[in-house]
Amino acid sequence: MSNRTRAETVAAVNVAARRHHAAYTLFNQAMAERLGLHPTDLQCVSLLGLEPRPRSTGEIAELTGLTSGSASRLVDRLERAGLVERQPDPGDRRKMLVSLTAHRSPELEAAWQAPGRAFAQALDEFTDDELGLIERYLQRTTQVGSEQTQLMHRS
């Protein structure tokens, strides 16, 4: 057990989280460069890959925290890069849905192989209970980050 106070532990977690965010941001930039993409574009591709169904540009704006105009330009760039395609929404012909294409999937998967193994190996050091706690922390801070992003866009 640590001799730190709760305030010291919370401060240490905040420092570690900021360092993690900075390191992952730099990793994302390097990966985007390797793939010839903008870092925001790579994050959108990653988020779309987690979605169970195609999304409208408006939903992509919500997922990414971008304005609708910025999200439209992002989808245009991803379409030109061969990463996404637009299809009419079967439920509303006025809307277009965006989904990932298979065109560049092998390239994306190959680029992620070595880093993916390294990240997985880092998790091998933790017990199942610790992994559950890490997952809960990441989910909660992701929620707070999304809320704070929305607040910043509104002000």
Describe it for me?
- It contains 6 helices and 3 strands; from the N terminus they run ααβααββαα.
- The chain has helices at 6-35, 39-50, 57-64, 68-80, 105-123, 128-154; strands at 55-56, 84-89, 92-100.
- Strand 2 and strand 3 (92-100) form a beta hairpin.
- Helix 1 packs across helix 2 (39-50), helix 2 (39-50) packs across helix 4 and helix 3 (57-64) crosses helix 4.
- Helices cover 70% and strands 11% of the residues.
- It is globular.
- It has a 3-stranded antiparallel β-sheet.
- The protein is mainly alpha-helical and 155 residues long.
List keywords for this structure.
about 70% helix; about 160 residues; 6 helices; mainly alpha
H/E series, N to C?
HHEHHEEHH
Strand content: 5-15%
What is Rg?
A: 18 Å
The total count of strands amounts to 3
- Mind describing the biggest β-sheet? 3 strands, antiparallel
Shape: globular
Measured distance between first and last alpha carbons: 43 Å
Name the strands of the widest sheet in spatial order: 1-3-2
Instruction: Count the DSSP helices.
Output: 6
pLDDT below 50 for ≥5 consecutive residues: which ranges?
Answer: none
What structural category arises from helix and sheet content? mainly alpha
- Helicity range of the residues? over 70%
**Mean pLDDT across all residues, rounded?**
93
